[in-house]
Amino acid sequence: MSVPSAPSKRAAPDDRRPAATPRRRLSGAARRGAILRGALGVFAARGYDGASMAELGTAAGVTRTVLYDHFRSKQELYVALVEQQNALFLGHVGARITGEGSTSERMRATIDAVFHFAQAHPAAWALLFGAMTGGDDAVADTRRALRAGQVEAVAALLARDAHEAGLDRDPAQMAVIVEMLIGALTGAVAWWRREPSATRDAVVDAAMELLWTGLGRPAAERERR
Amino acid sequence: MSVPSAPSKRAAPDDRRPAATPRRRLSGAARRGAILRGALGVFAARGYDGASMAELGTAAGVTRTVLYDHFRSKQELYVALVEQQNALFLGHVGARITGEGSTSERMRATIDAVFHFAQAHPAAWALLFGAMTGGDDAVADTRRALRAGQVEAVAALLARDAHEAGLDRDPAQMAVIVEMLIGALTGAVAWWRREPSATRDAVVDAAMELLWTGLGRPAAERERR
DNA sequence: ACCGTAACCGACACCTCTGTCGGTTGTCAA
DNA sequence: TTGACAACCGACAGAGGTGTCGGTTACGGT
To answer: Which chain A residue has the Cα nearest residue B196?
Structure first.
């Protein structure tokens, strides 16, 4: 990606560390944590291909080669980061799912938890739900595996409610619906990011309006009167 | 992206043209068309960053440098292709939207048209709705602009129905809902691609079940009896 | 038949990127 | 205090990528 006549507009991937930090040496574990912390922002902003080891290094406060003392390759670093953030996401949402209340109340709480995560950890959200492309085959496999885990988790939730409601859906239809749910929430977050003035409650309301109530409800109401 | 010890698994971006074609010279317009046709598959499969000019060239039946006789840069080629395919998409869906039938029938027809496009033009779908990452800032701007156009088109459709139904939504809520709709359909297509045995009708059914009926409807039915 | 336009290509210049290697030096335990 | 482990870095090698330039030659208009 080099354009001699018209230089790239991307931020210069400067190899220098910020001069502010006065050259500290950290323990292995601490540096590894710093690398992951910095990599989160870089990968989220530039995607897998767009992020260079040089930029990843400066974000962690070290030079490029240090990364290879803690991770075998860029791919391994990325996979470790994504798995870490996915675990955080599942923990965050799982901790907020209560078994109490009506079905709609529980669904609302779950959606709210998802949006809360997106609000509190925007970079992690971008890493996990944006940027589904780029990278090696192994990277794509990792993403697929995590997505499958998310789908399974949501499907289990829905299945419980569907069973309690006394109806059992076709499992294939269930899978599509879950995939659409995730896609819909991803779209909602993308919009919210462009319109940050909206409150989380308003976004949750809109999500419930579409996913719980359904677009057909108003028409049905109209027919009834 | 080179790993000396473990060579990349990607297909070798061979600069040679397929020996089968016996060296034909085309008119400018024809070659330009061939380039766009070939680029569709390559960009869809590898994404913007992953596609190299060499591979784009072989896909079009010429060497790399010929591309620069027809497009000023990789970016310009990509933008031209995406705009072309987006126009095709809007035309395809627009042609199938009928003003007749009930609101739910019209919505079903629209969703069916979208899925039909995804089925008939998988590469175009991947180009337009997968791979929202990678590339230069200008590329990202193009994608944003096209997405905005799609959102506006769908919003206009919905607004008409909402108005006819005698209710006017908050425009902000409307925008979120449209974004979620697109995300949901994208998710459904992604699932369908992994499970091609499902019929289009079945996928449309699932989509209507979620987006039109809503997940809450079964619960409501249960409460009523 | 021919001639000029432009489609096509090989070679070149330059850049960025990943990953390796050997040396240097901060830091902690003994 | 001192020695060794490992955190850190500069320089190197190799690959691949984009875009340019000048020459060659197929092909259509006359």
So the answer is: A172
Name residues 38-67 of chain A with a Cβ under 7 Å from nucleic strand D.
Answer: 62-66
Write the pLDDT tens digit of every residue in B8-58: 333 333 444 444 445 677 877 888 999 999 999 999 999 999 999 999 999
pLDDT of A133-142, one tens digit each?
A: 878 888 999 9
DSSP string, A44-73: HHHHHHH--HHHHHHHHTS-GGGHHHH-SS
Tens of pLDDT, residues B168-197:
678 888 899 999 999 999 999 999 999 999
Length of chain A: 225
Helical (H) or strand (E) element with B29: helix B28-50
Distance in angstroms (rounded) separating the CA atoms of residues A66 and B37: 44
Residue B100's pLDDT is 82
Q: CA torsion angle for B149, B155, B156, B161 (degrees, to 10)?
A: 160
CB B176 within 8 A of CB A207: yes
First to last CA, chain B: 62
Please indicate, yes or no, if residue A184 is contained in any of the structural domains: yes
Can you say whether residue A47 is alpha, beta or left, with left for phi > 0 and alpha for psi between -120 and 50 degrees? left
Question: Which residue among A133, A187, A190 sits closest to B134, beta carbon to beta carbon?
Answer: A133
Chain B contact for A182 (CB, 8 A cutoff): yes
Classify burial at A125, counting beta carbons within 10 Å of its beta carbon; exposed 0-12, middle 13-18, buried 19 or more.
buried
Position A147 in a domain: yes
Q: Which residue is nearest to nucleotide C17 (CA to C1')?
A: B1
Identify whether B127 is part of a domain.
yes
Please report, to the nearest 10 degrees, the dihedral formed by the alpha carbons of residues A39, A41, A46, A51 taken in order. Answer: -20
CATH number at residue B105: 1.10.357.10
Output the pLDDT for position A219: 56
pLDDT for res A13: 40
Q: Does A166 touch chain B (CB under 8 A)?
A: yes
